[in-house]
């Protein structure tokens, strides 16, 4: 979905029943001032939840943003989203303002396939915007008995968030331009043996970090690489 539309077109899109669903907020939890988890309830029976797909939420008169569901239960009609409230962007301001009992419309999930269940080893990289994807894929990887590893680049105040979300087998790195440095990436443990040579790599989060990590992976390993930048400094509405 286009991230910005004229108000009349945004109104029409939000009213389109084939793609948008009425939801009510049941609960909001701040894991810290910049990470907010919200539980929504509504009829999600026609939503097809796939790993890496995103739901669209209208965040202003003219703008929409993509967010990844971290948990869903169709029978109970609930879905959770973990939001990164960062800076003073229109999306962050809107999400920060949401409270229990607020009502809004959320789109059905859509996106590209990133998970290949036939590959034994799964490697997931991202930042705060990738935490929802990590939460959604973890129970599937455990159920399918994958070997898996998470790498997160997080702001210092968010270093403990993966633990609070119940994630496992993760390594947290500070955001000090580390994943913008090809030489530094080349020294990571995954390149020290052939163990991850044919893994399924899922790279999301900051565009520059994703692009740099992808380049090093392609130069060194033979696994499948799925990448999608969720945001880029100075660019609105990825």
From TrEMBL:
It comes from Chryseobacterium taeanense. It comes from the Bacteria. Residues 18-116 form the FAD-binding FR-type domain. One of its GO terms (molecular function) is oxidoreductase activity. InterPro entries: Cbr1-like_FAD-bd_dom (IPR008333), FAD-bd_FR_type (IPR017927), Riboflavin_synthase-like_b-brl (IPR017938), SIP_fam (IPR039374). This is Oxidoreductase FAD-binding domain-containing protein. Gene3D superfamilies: Translation factors.
């Amino acid at each position: 979905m286009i991230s910005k539309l004229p108000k009349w077109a945004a109104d029409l899109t939000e009213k389109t029943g084939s793609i948008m669903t009425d939801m009510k907020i049941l609960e909001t939890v701040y894991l810290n001032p910049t990470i907010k988890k919200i539980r929504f309830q509504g009829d999600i029976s026609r939503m097809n939840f796939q790993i890496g797909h995103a739901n669209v939420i209208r965040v202003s008169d003219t703008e929409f943003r993509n967010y990844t569901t971290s948990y869903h239960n169709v029978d109970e009609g609930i879905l959770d989203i973990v939001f990164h409230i960062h800076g003073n962007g229109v999306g962050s301001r809107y999400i920060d303002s949401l409270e229990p009992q607020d009502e809004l419309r959320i789109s059905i999930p859509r996106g590209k396939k990133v998970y290949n269940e036939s590959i034994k080893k799964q490697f997931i990289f991202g930042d705060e915007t990738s935490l929802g994807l990590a939460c959604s894929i973890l129970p599937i990887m455990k159920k399918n008995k994958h070997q898996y590893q998470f790498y997160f680049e997080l702001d210092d105040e968010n270093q403990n968030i993966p633990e609070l979300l119940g994630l496992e087998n993760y390594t947290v790195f500070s955001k000090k331009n580390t994943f913008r440095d090809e030489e530094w990436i080349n020294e990571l443990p995954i390149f020290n043996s052939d163990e991850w040579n044919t893994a399924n790599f899922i790279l999301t989060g900051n565009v520059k970090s994703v692009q740099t990590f992808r380049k090093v992976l392609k130069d060194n390993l033979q696994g499948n690489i799925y990448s999608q930048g969720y945001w880029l400094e100075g660019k609105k509405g990825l």
